[in-house]
Amino acid sequence: MALLPIITAPDRRLKKVAIPIEDVDDEVRCLMDSMLETMYAAPGVGLAAPQVGDLRRVIVVDVARAGTDPTPICLANPEVIATSDDVSVFEEGCLSLPEQFANVKRPKSVCVRYRDYENKICEQEMDGFLATCVQHEIDHLNGVLFVDHISSLKRSMLLRKLTKIKKSAAHARA
Ligand code: NI
């Protein structure tokens, strides 16, 4: 396992469509382990492989509350196969858009098909915050960020702020 550097926006790699994996083998499990370690260290509740520069369809999530036992879920080739008509709104953030938050509306529950850590094909009903989180991470596999779901005015405001933060960080390092 290893801590992986997280790519922050704006970055072209975050806009790419990731490719499916064949099987969850030891190499993919190793990526999943490192992604979980990176996510917990950040700390965050979800991470997609493109955020660490790996353009394969792999995501990890853990929405357990602080102070309770961890409940990591690793998903390869995740696909939303059904969505509820009901929607819910959560304030979302993203490890690739540090310190930026916005309310995003998504289906309240979803059924997701994926390959798990053992390479088994699973179908799981998800609801509430877990459903939101998994939809947010699947978006990353399609080059979509949560800011793509908000008004273009708010989006350009957030992205301008991020560009500024990135520039001043680069100056600080120079
Ligand atoms: Ni994100």
Give me the secondary-structure topology.
Blueprint: H1 26-41, E1 46-48, E2 58-61, E3 73-83, E4 87-92, E5 102-107, E6 109-115, E7 121-127, H2 128-141, H3 152-173
Antiparallel strand pairs: 1-2, 2-3, 3-6, 4-5, 6-7
Short description:
This protein is 30% helix and 25% strand.
Q: How does this structure look, described?
A:
This protein is α+β, with helices and mostly antiparallel strands. It contains three helices and seven strands. A hairpin with a 5-residue loop joins strand 6 (109-115) and strand 7 (121-127). The radius of gyration is 16 Å and the shape is globular. Nickel (II) ion binds next to helix 2.
Low-confidence stretches: none
Q: What spatial order of strands do you see in the largest sheet?
A: 1-2-3-6-7
CATH topology: Peptide Deformylase
Estimated structural class:
alpha+beta
Strand content: 25-35%
So, CATH architecture? Alpha-Beta Complex
Bound molecules: nickel (II) ion
Largest sheet: 5 strands, antiparallel
Pattern of helices and strands: HEEEEEEEHH
Name the features:
single chain; 174 residues; alpha+beta; Peptide Deformylase; five-stranded antiparallel β-sheet; two-stranded antiparallel sheet; 30% helix; globular; binds nickel (II) ion
